[in-house]
Fold this sequence. Notes:
Chain A has 574 residues and is an alpha+beta fold.
Amino acid sequence: MALGVLSYSAGVNGAIPQTAPEAALAVALGWLYVGAGLLAWWKRPQSRTGLLMTLFGLTIVFRNFVFDDSSLGFTVGFLLSLVPLAILAHLILGYPAGHLAGRLERWYMGATYTLVLAFPLAALLFYEPSLYDERTPLGCDPSRGECPASLLLVEGNATAVELARGSLDTLVYLALAVTFVVLLARRLVRATPRTRRMAAPVFAIALVLAVDVIATTALNVRAYTESQLHTVFRALLQFAIPIALLAGVLRERLAHAAVGDLVLELEGKPPHGVHGALARALGDPTLRVAFWLPERVAYVDAAGEPVSLPADTSDQAVTALESDGEPLAALIHDPILLEDPGLVAAAGAAAKLALENERLHAQLRAQLVEVRRSRARIVATADAERRRIERDLHDGAQQRLVALGLTLKLVEQNRALDPEAARLLATAVQELQAAIHELRELARGVHPAILTEEGLGAALESLASRTPLPVTITAAPPGRLAPDVEAAAYFVACEGVTNAVRYSHASAVTIRAERDNGRLVVEVADDGVGGAQVASGSGLRGLADRVEAHGGRLSVESPPEGGTRLVGEIPCAS
Amino acid sequence: MRVVIADDSVLLREGLSRVLADAGFDVVAQVGDADALHEAVDRLAPDVAIVDVRMPPTHTDEGTRAAQEIRAKHPGVGVLVLSQVLDSPRALRLVSEKRGGFGYLLKDRVLDVDDFVDAVRRVGRGGSAIDADVVAELVAREKARDPLDALTPRERDVLALIAVGHSNQAISTKLYLSPKTVETHVNRIFQKLKLAPTPEGHRRVLAVLAYLRPGGDRGISVTNP
């Protein structure tokens, strides 16, 4: 407070003119920042925002000593005159994390701090007030009293002072201001939704301020620069920034309050589960929840699908939540939330029961997913094995049997052969032919070659050809589908046709196989006696297992005397 | 009659070669895959190429494709396809309007040496040889349909033999009928099935197969790739 009074009196009473409201404004602004900075620092010690705000306030107060009559006050004040602006730029570029995100920003700030100190320093090295009769380039009016001297004077040189304070520096500051606007716009574009929402007011005010600075330095419209309007506008903007910064901090307080609401919300059934409630309470729409499955030593999402946590280097952060010392879940969220670790922890604690509950669900779903997959794997393996057996039968055993038969035939044609032996040989060849025929039928039952080689359409046609009933194929999918889908559909058709021939006493069968909305629908309808059930026939049960293993469904409509309709629906990627 | 044999089983190739040589054929080349088959056909221009459906490298339809290519490239070369599996749709697809002999037989038909030799000879002369099981499937499938019901059992036998690719002369020998009787049967079959009278030979086989083919000329829609 004493410092403030001192600074104020220095401003009002010094040789360099400063009106009472101006001095009061500067001091009030300085202390406002110091206060807000200390508050922010206390609330969020991890963030450098509070520290920077405090420093900003202090440099503003110290800067005002430039109006003091003493040489020390003048020298320190003048040296620091532009530092507050640099700190303000730092504060805004770093907001809300408090640290500079990119290398570009760090370079920029380094250059800015150097330059805002270098030019006043250069001016002070050559400033000799006695060289001037009128108002000096450093703003002292000799008519109001003796101008304070520079403590750092090396040699009086009016040209050097003019260069450091009036021509070169204006260009450099303009470049810095323009760069600042570009960097700020870039940050705004790249910010995560939460950061953008939080920082938007600060960034907006900063942009207006930067534009105002550019306008006054570059365009130097005297009517505006020297008007009261400019002073008031600049002051308003400068006041608005700490208020906006404080609002950010207060918003965090509100976020803590939202955690309280979270508990109430989770009491009921939140519409998007605990995940949605957490995302809302923490104000981070990108938030995801991963549940820890101890038996699998891995994280899964609510649907039971495996989740890999983002790496440390990614633009997402992870907060692990524990329950009784055991991992429970992980929140994958905007890293900005880490600045207030208490917030995420509080939200996690509030949602613990709900998370535990949902983890049980996720666990169950993960198990179901695994069971379904292993079922599909078993069927796929069995299918592959069937295809291999079919091929081995045809290309191995059958080929050898035919070759053997040919050899026997050649022996048979030997005229020197005993008639009894010739008769036996002929019988052997006949037996061999019967064996080959049986082998072929067996192989076809195992897995028809035509299905592997020509696909479902041809296989259905072949099935229709060898069925002793009129079979009409009303539709078959063009082109090829995944082998396991084709196999499942084919076996549905086979089962339907077999049922029609053996049990239904049907007189006609219709087969329809069509792709419909990501599924292959196979329907076999006959006009027989009906009465078939999935549960009763082991053939139908096995078929249902096969179709369900692919995530499909098998249904039978078979009213007594009403014919039988067997429908298989198998998901197939389109 | 000059023959090229393509089959990846050496044992079978040798056996076939002996059987055909004994029957008076001149086996000019034996090959084990489709590339060698094309080379042999280009170079030797045989009367008949006997082609196994499954050949290296994938053992799926190399033979089928080779057969189609030979028919397109060398209409004068008769192609006899041997298949391990009964695949009527494929057999019917292979039979086309193209000039030149064509046959589709199950592999173990080679054990009925006389019939097999006869089939090779027919194909070599530009005729047809369709496996009796393929025809039987077609006829059995059509059994419940009206026009075939109108055929007498004897007429049905004659129809099956026409579809297999036999001439009237061969049918009369097989069924112990006079050529005149066979001709009468054939005319009546064509009348009952409302088919245009067709002279003997490949075109007659095609007409009958087209009739028997599922959905052939009955307006039954069969979507097939």
